[in-house]
Amino acid sequence: MSVPFRIGVLQLSMEPVHETIQMAKACEEAGFDTFWLAEAYPWWRKHSMEARSCTAVTALIARETKRIGVGWGIISPYTRHPVQIAMEARIMQELAGERFLLGIGASKIFMKHSGEGEKGKTAGPAVVMKEAIEIVNGILEGKAFTYHGQIFQAEVPPLKNDAHVPKVKSATYFGATGPVLQKLAGSHTDGLLTASITTPGFVRYSRVNMEEGARKAGRDPGKLDLGSVVVGSVDKDSRKGKEGAREMAAMYLANKVQNIKGSADVILEKAGLTFDEISPIADAMERGGRKAAAQAVTDTVLKKVTPIAGDPKECIDRIEEYRDAGCTHIMLEIWGDNRLEQARLFGKEVLPYLRKR
Questions:
Q1: For residue 131, what are the domain limits?
Q2: b/e burial code for range 329-340 (CB count within 10 A of at least 16 → b)
Q3: Distance CA 146, CA 143 (A)
């Protein structure tokens, strides 16, 4: 593959802004390649967390960092018109230049709670995503642009030569779980982002779909990036390292049951998990919050999730497993005690080894 292997960190936009910026700066100092922010939805209020705008916070991160890539991982065209997405992308290009990574996705939870999506609508997510990226790319190119799609319309005049805009091209990504959108990522973007609870089995499944989409469009699959969101937690004590991963896995497995049942089937299938197996975790989440849900994640379930967790050697082994499966971009969702220190430990004892490979 011609795409360089990268390791980044992803967070949801549900934490205080100053803490998120602090984490991004710690990741840059530790030597991570990228920092992604995924847009949370107010569902997290049930668990004492508040959703914040991904685009606003990433702009602040871009101002506060110098080297690390800064990505939207993801925002949804169901909540922003593609013209607005292009406008916000301009801000990121101005602040981060080529460091900016533009990720969009349908987001099943947004579709459910906003009343959008397949039921009773004129088009499914594939049409929405295809039209959205075509409009964003068309506007960012700067030429006169007119678009009349099934869902979206856009008419934008050309940029004048003396307009003050950055002359950069941003890498684009689709966040996708199902085969149709994963193939569309291969044909229309620079890469595919897979959701949390991605396992090596789901990486292999996703790469097949992305490459098929690329080949059908006459594109080189080897030039596409496959980024995978993986639960992560590290400590010199293996047991402590796994506990943070257990809590994050609990939150996501509960989310699969409560919000996006059906669309998560392939992810769970490739992990060897069933809804019957994870339903007790969702029940515990409702009764007692994320700590109670973490206690409901058995060692067997945690092993199936395949987190990059434990002591540094175990984390290295898991990262190699994901790389061997075809992942070119690890997006660690670090959780547990003292995440700033975890970022430093990854930078000190995990990243240097991987750079030598």
A1: 6-239+326-356
A2: bbbbbbbbeebb
A3: 10
CA 129-134-135 angle, 5° bins? 100
Distance of CA 111 to the CA centre of its chain: 17
Alpha helices in the chain (DSSP H): 17-30, 54-64, 82-96, 108-114, 125-141, 179-188, 200-216, 238-258, 265-271, 275-296, 299-305, 312-325, 339-349, 351-356
Task: Average the pLDDT over each of 104-118, 125-139, 215-229, 315-329 and give the range with the smallest value.
Answer: 104-118
Take residue 11 and report the two structure tokens written for it: 């967070």
- How far apart CA 320 and CA 354 sit, in angstroms, is 9
Residue 308 lies in a domain: no
Burial class (CB in 10 A: 0-12, 13-18, 19+), 203: buried
Alpha carbons 331 and 228: distance in angstroms, whole number: 6
Is residue 305 included in any domain, yes or no? no
Q: What pLDDT was estimated at residue 114? A: 60
3-state secondary structure of 154: strand
Domain assignment of residue 80, yes or no: yes
pLDDT digits (tens, 9 = 90+) for 229-260: 999 999 999 999 999 999 989 988 987 776 65
User: For the chain, what is the domain count?
Assistant: 1
CB 317 within 8 A of CB 353: no
How far apart are alpha carbons 77 and 299 in whole angstroms? Answer: 38
Cβ atoms 325, 203 nearer than 8 A: yes
**Using an 8 Å Cβ cutoff, are 24 and 91 in contact?**
no
Angle between the N-to-C axes of helices 275-296 and 238-258, in degrees from 0 to 180, rounded to the nearest 10: 130
Give the torsion through C-alpha atoms of 19, 22, 24, 27, to 10 deg.
-120
SS3 331: strand
- Looking up tokens 């292009």, which residue turns up? 86
318 occurs within a structural domain: no
Alpha carbon distance 260, 252 (integer Å): 10
CA dist., res. 246 & res. 24, Å (int): 23
Strand 225-234 relative to strand 308-310: parallel, antiparallel, unpaired?
parallel
CATH code of the domain covering residue 162: 3.20.20.30
Please state whether the predicted TM-score (pTM) of the whole model is above 0.85: yes
